[in-house]
Amino acid sequence: MSILSPTDRAVLWRTVLTSGSEERESLLRVLAAEILDSVGRRLDLYDGYEDEVVETVGLLDASGLLGRDDLRESFEEADEDDDHAQSFVALLTAHLSDAADIERLGTNQRVQALRLAGAWQSHLLDRARAQSDSLTAPQVAARYGVTPQAVYKWIKAGRVRAEQTPGGSWRLPADQFDDHRQLDRRRITDLKARLAERVRDAPPFTDEELADEIVARRRD
Questions:
Q1: 102 close to 63: Cβ distance less than 8 angstroms
Q2: What SS3 state is found at 134?
Q3: Is pLDDT of 194 > 70?
């Protein structure tokens, strides 16, 4: 399958959102295939990840979060470079975490959303470990379970150290996140999934609220 242009990706996304029930499932699979093609070569995701992407798209559609403008806009640019691909994956992670808080989905789907969020986090965090000096904004977002936009707000507010590259991307020195208070997001996501299976209740605090509190305390 050839990778679509940004304009064609926008048309595909809108076509999925406006499709009827009879054709929606097949269109969701087309969208999932395009997502895998768009980010696969940037994040080394190819064979074996098809089901993960299909499940991700299906859950976001069932939760109503597939209609988020930030997801669509990020998808349109996902193939431009590594940073754009990582930003899209970070958004998938954040919105899957949000889906886990939607009670009408039921326990099984909410647990699945958490598991998928953890899998997408792993893709970015494993990549971040290979970079010893600096992290991208999407990698920091995955680390704390927030959107890249939240990290950009931290940069603008001076709450984290960051340097802008000549190309306009941000790089955040990794050492500011390497202390004993750092959260392992995958362990927390896994724990929340196991708790959801047991008690069928959403966590009392969102990941973004938790991350904001951690960063605030680190700067005090």
A1: yes
A2: strand
A3: no
Q: What is the pLDDT of residue 126?
A: 75
Question: Residue 1 domain-assigned?
Answer: no
Per-residue pLDDT tens digits for 19-35 = 998 899 999 999 999 99
| Number of compact structural domains in the chain | 1
Q: For the chain, how far is it from start to end, CA to CA, in angstroms?
A: 51
DSSP 204: S
In a domain, 60, yes or no: yes
Residue type, 180: H
Give per-residue pLDDT as tens, 81-136. 888 898 999 999 989 988 988 888 888 898 889 889 888 888 887 777 666 688 88
Which residues share a beta bridge with 170? 164
Q: Determine, yes or no, domain membership for 48.
A: yes
- Six token digits for residue 195: 């708790």
Exposed / middle / buried, residue 164 (Cβ in 10 Å: 0-12, 13-18, 19+)? exposed
Q: What is the rounded distance in angstroms from the CA atom of residue 110 to the CA atom of residue 98?
A: 9
Total residues belonging to the chain: 220
Q: List C-alpha distances in Å: 99 to 53, 113, 182.
A: 15, 6, 24
Residue 31 located in a structural domain: yes
Give CA–CA dist 58/92, Å, rounded: 12
Residue 205's pLDDT band (boundaries 50, 70, 90)? Answer: very low
Cβ–Cβ under 8 Å, residues 140 and 87: no
Which residues form the domain of 145? 6-219
